[in-house]
């Protein structure tokens, strides 16, 4: 499975990476504004780079946006493809990004994010393939999936046309922190909306005739399980909306919340407790309640003895990086890929303080993340 290149170490391979070119690719990308659902310009840039490296590139439209899917034949015989994935959109604000490069890190210096999440990953993947192309290295067949609107609820991944893909394994680069951690588990994430309907009445003339949806909602919010439920389960109410004027007993309130858990049974139990509590309180208040639940994505857990995980850990080790297995409380495109039967490991690629104006990436991590991709596509044979 792992070629002699690996036994000899990847020192030579590391020297093939053109650090300046990698930095330029990254900064080219962050200069292109690409908030969720507006990824076209960034995608055109990526597509032209990939086409020059022997990739077939296809934009898979899904209405609200599109995914970039690319294939590259590695030239090695009968090797199954490996999927490399990142997302093209960035969280806002991104308009007018400015950054500094002090020789050790690239940082945002304005009020915007840097966009290293997830453009540093795209740059690392492009550079790794550029090296393979330029040096004519034997690498596995590659399927590249760059999604859109990941930040808006994994929209691109959820709408990905999986019939276009043959990969059974994926390397996703969309986890923060220095290079070395591998996300092996992420929770299921369900969201819900509760509509509480009471009865409107004039608050000064006949409050007795009203049923306050706000008072009912307040009691529900105070009583349902919230925050950290156990080590692998959380719940949160994130939005409440309701009421029209101070002189009206409020008729309607909408509550939006979520539950996450690595444990499917606990997830169902917590949801049941929340909804049973809400229904009981609503009926005590004489209000009605309507609850809608949405399964945003499902959990995954890769076993410690999994051969793909072992393979990837060895890639890290042979490049002098200790792999740390991590369980996360957040979701990523990897959740969607795993639920479609593609074993997807999400690795940290060096981006730090993402989703903030302090976002940065150490140049050393930018190179290391690229090296991991390069070493992986050289060694991957299935
Ligand atoms: Zn991301």
Give your account of this protein's structure:
This protein has helices at residues 4-7, 11-16, 19-31, 40-51, 116-134, 155-158, 213-223, 264-285, 307-318, 333-339, 363-379; strands at residues 55-61, 66-72, 82-87, 99-101, 105-108, 142-147, 169-175, 181-186, 188-197, 201-202, 227-230, 233-242, 248-249, 252-261, 288-297, 300-301, 324-327, 343-348, 351-352, 360-362. The longest helix has 22 residues, at 264-285. The chain is built from eleven helices and 20 strands. The protein folds into two domains: 4-186 and 299-379, Aminopeptidase; 188-297, Alpha-Beta Plaits, CATH 3.30.70. It is elongated and about 80 Å long. Strands 1, 2, 3, 6, 7, 8, 16, 17 and 18 form a nine-stranded mixed sheet that branches. It is α+β, with helices and mostly antiparallel strands. A hairpin with a 3-residue loop joins strand 4 (99-101) and strand 5.
Q: How many H/I helices? A: 11
Q: What can be said about the biggest beta sheet?
A: 9 strands, mixed
Residues in helices, as a percent range: 25-40%
* Class inferred from helices and paired strands: alpha+beta
List the uncertain runs. none
CATH class of the largest domain: Alpha Beta
Rg result: 24 Å
Brief sketch in words of this structure:
The chain contains 11 helices and 20 strands. By secondary structure, the chain is an alpha+beta fold.
